[in-house]
Amino acid sequence: MNKYITAYYDDEEDLLRGLKQIKAKGIEVADVLTPFPVHGLDKALGMSRSKLTRVAFAGGAVGAIIGFGFQAWVFTQAYPLNFGGKPFFAVPSFIPVTFEMAVLFAAFSMVFAFLISNKIGPGAKTVIHDERITDDRFLLVVNVQDEENAHTIEAVLNDAGAHGITLIKKN
Amino acid sequence: MENLTFILKKKTVTIFLVMIAVGVLSLAYGFLGGVEVKRVAANLLLNNYYFLSLGLIGLFFVTVHTIAESGWQTSVQRVGEAMSAYIPVGGGLLLLFFVLGGLHSIYPWTHSDHLDAILLKKVAYLNVPFFYVRLLVFIGVWSLLAHYVRKASVNLDLHGDMKYFNKMRTLSAIFIVTYAVTSVVSSWDWLMSLDPHWFSTLYGWYIFSSMLASGFAMLILVIYVLKRMGYLSHVNDEHMHDLGKYLFGFSIFWAYLWFSQYMLIWYANIPEETIYYLERHKYFTNIFYVNLILNFVIPFFLLMTRKSKRVFTVLVPVSVIVIIGHWVDLYMAIMPGAVGGEASGIGIVEIGLTIGYLGIFGLVTFWSLTKAPLAPKNHPYYKESMDYHTHY
Amino acid sequence: MENKYFKSLEELRVDPSRELEEQSAGDKSFILKLQRESAALPPTSRRDFLKAFGFTIASAAVASSCEQPVRKAIPFLIQPESIIPGKASYYASTFYDGIEYSSVLVKVRDGRPIKIEGNSLSSVTKGGTNARTQASVLNLYDNARYKTPLKDGSETSWEQVDAEVVGKLKEINNRNGKIVLLSSSVISPSTTAAIEEFAQVFPVVQHVEYDVISASGILEANHASFGQAFVPSYRFDKADLIVSFDADFLGSWLSPVEYTKQYVKNRKLVDGQKKMSRHIQFEGTMSLTGTNADYRVQMRPSHQKLVLANLLNELKALNGELKASMPEVSQDVKSLAAELMKHKSASLVVCGSNNKKTQLLVNEINNLLGNYSVTIETDVILKSRQGIDSRMTQLVSEMNEGKVDALIVLDVNPLYDYPEVTKFAEGLKKVGLTVSMPVVTDETSAAVTYICPDHHYLEAWNDAEIKTGFYSLAQPAIRPIFNTRAAQESLLRWAGNTTDFRAYISNYWEKNIYPKTDGLFGFTAFWNKCLHDGIFESGEKDLVPIAYTNAASIEAFESAKGSSAGDVIDLVLYSNVSVGSGKHANNPWLQELPDPVTKACWDNYIMISPRLADELNVVDEQLVSINGSVTLPVIVQPGQEYKTVAVALGYGRQQTGVPANGVGKNLYPMLSLIEGTKSFDVYDVQLAVEAGTYPLAKTQSHHSMEGRELIRDTSLEAYLEDPQSGNETRLEVKKHLKSLYPEATFDGLHWGMAIDLNACTGCNACVVACSSENNVPVVGKEQVIASREMHWIRIDRYYKGDPNDPEVVRQPVMCQHCDNAPCENVCPVAATTHSNEGLNQMAYNRCIGTRYCANNCPYKVRRFNFLDYTGADSFTGNTYDPTDMTTDLRRLVLNPDVTTRAKGVIEKCSFCVQRIQEKKLVAKTEDRQLRDGEVVPACAQACPAEAIVFGNLNDKNSKVSQYFASERNYHLLEEIHTLPSVGYLTKVKNKTV
Amino acid sequence: MYVSPLREPLIRGSKDYSQVTKDILAPMAGKPSKYWYMGITLSGAAALFGAWATFMTVYYGIGTWGLNKTVGWAWDITNFVWWVGIGHAGTFISAILLLFRQKWRTSINRSAEAMTLIAIACAGFFPLIHMGRLLLGFFILPYPNTRALWVNFNSPLLWDVFAITTYLLVSLVFWYIGLIPDLGTVRDKASNKIRKAIYGFLSFGWTGSAKHWSRHETVSLILAGLAAPLVLSVHTIVSFDFATSVIPGWHTTIFPPYFVSGAVFSGFAMVLTLLIVTRKALNLEEYITVGHIENMNKVIIITGSIVGIAYITEFFMAWYSGVEYEQYAFINRATGPYAWAYWIMMTCNVITPQLFWFKKIRTNLVATFIISIFVNIGMWFERFVIVVTSLHRDYLPSSWVMYKPTIVEIGLYVGTLGLFFTLFLLFIRVFPVIAIAEVKSVLKSSGDNKKDSHHE
Question: What DSSP element (H or E) covers C380?
């Protein structure tokens, strides 16, 4: 059996303040669902910085290498042709395509990594806890181990000024 | 509580004076030690231009953020203003250099008896009197605007009156517009005309981008030095991050313009244009590539991550490299035309004179820092600057 | 390698006696026999052709399509012996259209003639051709050709025609009526014999020679001076001083190809030659010849006689005679006379006038200068102008009087080109029997009863004697495409002689010409050699009956003294280098050929001086009427004499094919007949500005070089002092020619072309040759107006100096095959690249038509197929072909070695890469190096001035390398480092600066 | 975050988050207005005109245009560059303003990006249609073929293929990533099942999880970091089309930054043109305030001035070069047969935007609207001047000609305008025109009802 409690705030400042209180009580908040990115929330939840930048860098590097390498291969190995007396290994000519390839690969690798890491994508099935979380509600999710635990949590949440505290059971 | 007033210590002054002495000695060596006059003159021009430009970028930093209604930069605004104090000094030195024979010694077009058909067509522009007229206008306008911007900024801090804030905005706008034109034209006059046959429409902006990158590097360095001295504690990682991003961005921007100019000339391969790069390829092969590495490759890879822009251990070395790099870039711009490939080199004159000018620049800048509180607390956006987070 | 000259297809037929031997040789010989039998069946003599015809249509379709499926292919079941698919044969032949002559080689590919080249064995034309000769192959495939004999416009059979005509002729002959045979000047000895034979059978026959562009004035003047009407041989190569009065001898006067060869020979400063003739041109309108002159003096045509009289007067004075008093002229004839005197016996004065008295003055001038027998040979006469105008005038009167019972028209077109055309038409109605023997539909044939279509010259046997002793032969290069019959054969048949004309000619030559040789090898060998060479030059002379007498000239001089220089507007009616007399107006190549002076095509127009234009307040394309009868647009022509206007003849055809009908206006009715003689100068015309404008198709609209050193020139004096003169910039430019990357090297071959601007006269022969060789599409007037002409080679013409009296310079420009080609760099799909022989190549299949290359070409030589001009597009029904060039018949002229280009593709000069490849293969099979001069592009081949030299730049001894090494050599726009493979030699004018 | 009281609020009116959602989603709900129908009829008709012109071009060939042997590009490439330029504003606003932390971008970036995508689609149409053999256009792709022939990597047109494709794809992704949370909002506000399903699919299952938001911000920022040089590179490469050549007036080194600046200039002008109408029509005046318009006008002054300096630099350098061809090209621009185009360009691009130095003018919507149209016209003529006047008289005077457009060319241009407005009108019905989440994120700090006490 898997259970969790949801509760919401109407304002992000109340949310941040409440979070502090909840954390101080040693309660782990599983997730916070917000209608917009709340500044300082990631710190408050103790999240580490995203590693997507590294994916982007790797993608960009691969794109650049493929871009440059392919052009160089075509011009010097596969089919060297004399274009207006330019050297076969015409580095300045290769730069624009290399750059575009780097950007393309970086952007797409990162975006795919983003979608995969978030497990979202076209047709993704996710739980919508409250239709107002994309409007004006800030929803807390706290995992619950047992009944007793649930009560404690509910109390803490209540103290922290959260509304609509609900226990949800998942099977 | 932070230390708001900068006090110039004797030790610091001594260091700068020693540097200046090194400069004077190497100048003397240049004249007496059998170094070609041309080479000495070209070095004087290089350093005059370089440090004058750094001063101008200081002013540019202040004014551009002022008109952009930006707030975060107010924490380091004084440093930019202090750099701009060098403008009248550098301008004077440059004027002196030209008057005392610098003009005639390295600018081929000043030799009216050696004008060929193409140069004769340009006489309406490239002639000594008109050159001086422009020179005086540039230096005069820059110095005056530097003075008034600074004055308005200090007054704003003193009186906290919005009148000064608006005045500063107006002056900034005037400076930006003037500088947009004068930076370009002055680079044609002082640098491009060293190769009087050659021309490139991008040249002015290219030189500007070079100075922009080095100017921000210098700004970072001065901030670093001040912080090391225990000042500017209100300047935090976020501010450095932004400056680092500038350095990163302008290094890429410089590379972009370098590539644009080089590639277009390389591609069309028209002799009247390629001659510029041919000379540089032939006599300055290593420097040609070193230039790219110092000014693009190193800052690009080292400043790519978020962290590197926030820690001085990366930011400072990169800034030093970029400052050296753009010195090299100017060297590439000046030497082939002024001195010629065979007579050029990097030796006592080059290094010594640069140290000397750095001394003057440092002295003026730090002296200027003593004249006003380091944090313009009454600036309307100062508070924004203090409450400044970048979470990227 | 030399071109292989073959005899005709018929000559190559297998000897029948060998047939028997082969019969036992099994299947193969059986097949051969079948083939021969089928060839022997009477109506199937055309079958070989039809096979080739079918194949070639198919191959044209293949060649002309980039990705279309082959719609129709008829393979050779049995391979004809003389046809090797893919290999061209060359047949020597003769082009003569009643006006102009050229000894030619006909290139035949897969059974069809596709290209005309000059025959270098001829010492008259020396391998030169002009635009019309080059274009004549297309006339063979003219859609407007008569395909069968016709009676009253409906198809009939030869038997029927023969029966009816012979019946009528006999009837007329019997009642002692009058039969007139009307032709242009006949230069064919065999034809003359045939006509004589015809006249013997029908004694009432009178032969009238009617020359459209006649030389009556010269003929009659010479008759007065020498006792015989003839046109002498002019020797421009022997003259150090050439003075021409209105004679456009490089463009249209008498024998322009021959004269160009001679003229240029004496003016080319290559191979160590330092001497150059001086050429002074007096003229009213701006002619091709005038633009080439060292000095050009403006002279109104109505002043011509007086100027000549003044010149004669001055010469007489210099000769010690008393100077007669006469009205003065504005031109400086005094110093001209002095200059002429300095070049006594080495000068040449020619005059384009058709007036006997004027020509008499010229005769006397030449006589005084001692030019006869030196620069004017009277013992070798030019036979292409024999018609005396007054005879034609007389004929027309007789027709109107009803005195003519039968008129047989031999490929002339008086209903179009006779000045008093209505009078001729009226007269024609009164002639009982009218027969015409045209090749292509024309106005005259449309009005006659019987049309007996003649072969095109490429289908026919013929011979010619253009000048005394200069014989040549014409042989068929293809079987007659249509049911036509040689005109001579028709005449012979009507006269009861059924010999075919080939046999007739050979008999004639055996009897009359063979005896002029030493006769060592027998007639068959002689005949074969003549057929192979195309020519026979006997060296015989034509002696004039009397020595020069000046009585008539003196009389003319006396009468000229009384004339005065009037202040009237004169009209010059000239024939241009494209459509000429209008006979070939139905040739799209010629219609689209820009005039070398005005750069306009597809129309005639009034050339008017800038001053007069200002006075009339007109600009280009404004409609102006002449004498209220003809309204045409004007072109303001710098260099035109103030009150001289000029209009080209040859336009305004009404009853021929699609391209020509309705193009321009017919100006022949404006010619004045003075005492029965045509005058091509009409004095005192009235101009009136009409409402409206009319768009003219011009290929060049900007005429100044804008101070750019595109065409470099100098004077002879300066050149002799410093060969670099005029080309000084090159030294400076060469110093700065540096590249950021190593220059490409070409091992083996590196093709280059050098063009001697001093030799090029601007005659445009190269342009047509190029179109013919490379299947360059004709785009029509609308597209030329839209600046979309497709010519791969163009001749840029610029004016220098005073717009009222400018100097003219010319420059042929084609793809420069730059080794640093800006066009190649920018093609995204690599459709244009540089070959390892230095050629700038186009892969049409690869081209997607971004036109980037054309934009980036500084020479603007790349041409884009804006529409589907050739029918090669993958869509159907969108072909844009206003000139009917894509009919099956017209397409037979396509060169199968060159792809026709589809819509949306860029094309340009390839240095005739197909010719390069062909010669390379020959050299390869012969296991040797290519020889210098072996590869000749079409333009160079056609050039009568030999201005274009092509070869290997890597071979330092090649002619092109030597040209490139010359101080005069420069490259166009060299300063932008495109490294062109085309060089130009500076133009040198023999002019005192 | 503290915001100085000096700064004007970016969102007017006292609003809470729910109100923001409601306001921005309002245009998507209900039946379109009659103005919307009129608009789409008009633009649809224009697009049909373009379809006819496209057929004529493909079937009969480029000959249906006014081009000739000398002028190989004219309206086609002029329109291409014009549209690409317009397509620069969106990414500039989203990427570069994001990097420079200009908060005012939040209200305009969504529609500006949509406009960018549509403009690039319009732009991309021209290089395709300008090909003589459109059906073989795939030759331009480096795909393995039987002849083992690749493409020419030296060709700026090929670089264009890569640049435009990359730009379109990255812009699309950038736009869509930003759109995902808002699509979640649309989904959750949808009353009808089908709508819910569609937006549910399009929103990729967005939940608003803090972790997702964190990654979302990283992705947005890095994409901005990638898009910023990309946006420079695109117009740079477009400028290479001309600058790599040897044609006077085309070959000049200043082109890359000058084109980029001109692109941003024209892009902002088009954004202004659209938004001034849109904010009124969709009642979004409180989100797209005069302050936004003023800020954009400032960008117009800066970029317009840069462009002006570039014009003057080019002109001076043509004289200074001493190269006769170069000199003539510029004299011809200013005094030749197309001088009228040059002076329209100068007036619209250099003089008109200087009016924005006056605060009265740059805060006046009518004046801004008119000037933005002027800039659009001026920038079209800038490209026309570069493309046509440089080509029509280049090196050899023998080839100098004039160029005149035909109805087919006009049809193609009008057609893309029709397409542009049609797609934009569809966009405002289908997607939220303002980034809801982003506006919400600045509502507290920059809204009218901001709490001054916050973050003391």
Answer: strand C376-382
